[in-house]
Design a protein that fits this description.
Length: 157
């Protein structure tokens, strides 16, 4: 009888551990917070979104105000079209600027909304006109190396 109580305790402990791991996986994957069905939808177009992914956070002043809903490519303008859903308690003016930023040096990318001074607000389905594309570190390093190579080949003549 003592052995069966021990086995039951181990089983309960393992089950709780599995539930905790499942919960942590949902939290890390941004799936356990902010139900996408509530709030209003906005759209922004970017020349380059870098590593921005669906379900990435949308932040304003460092506070998560929504999530990226979907990302697609416009076949005529070849711009990335980012759809985002913002929680209903947050309102943004018509001259809001959407930027793609990175958390830390090599962290995840998120969409940042910087509010302007326009007294009218964006409504459901509106497009954010002012955008700033992602800063791609690899592109900057490539340009730097290309310029250094061009300088060194120009000075050797």
């Amino acid at each position: 009888m003592n052995r069966s109580k021990f086995d039951l305790a181990v089983g309960v402990f393992v089950a709780l551990g599995m539930l905790a791991l499942g919960f942590m996986a949902l939290r890390v994957g941004n799936l356990a917070s902010f139900d996408g069905s509530e709030g209003y939808r906005l759209e922004a177009r970017f020349d380059n979104i870098g590593g921005l992914k669906s379900r990435a956070p949308v932040k304003s002043a460092g506070v998560v105000v929504g999530r990226v809903e979907s990302i697609k490519l416009d076949n005529t303008t070849y711009e990335a079209v980012v759809s985002l859903r913002v929680k209903p308690e947050y309102r943004f003016s018509n001259d809001t600027i959407a930027s793609i930023l990175t958390s830390g040096l090599l962290g995840e990318q998120y969409l940042s909304l910087d509010v302007g001074g326009d007294p009218s607000y964006l409504s459901d389905g509106a497009r954010i006109v002012k955008t700033q594309s992602a800063f791609v570190l690899e592109k900057l390093i490539g340009q730097f190396l290309f310029n250094k190579a061009a300088e060194s080949s120009g000075t050797s003549k």
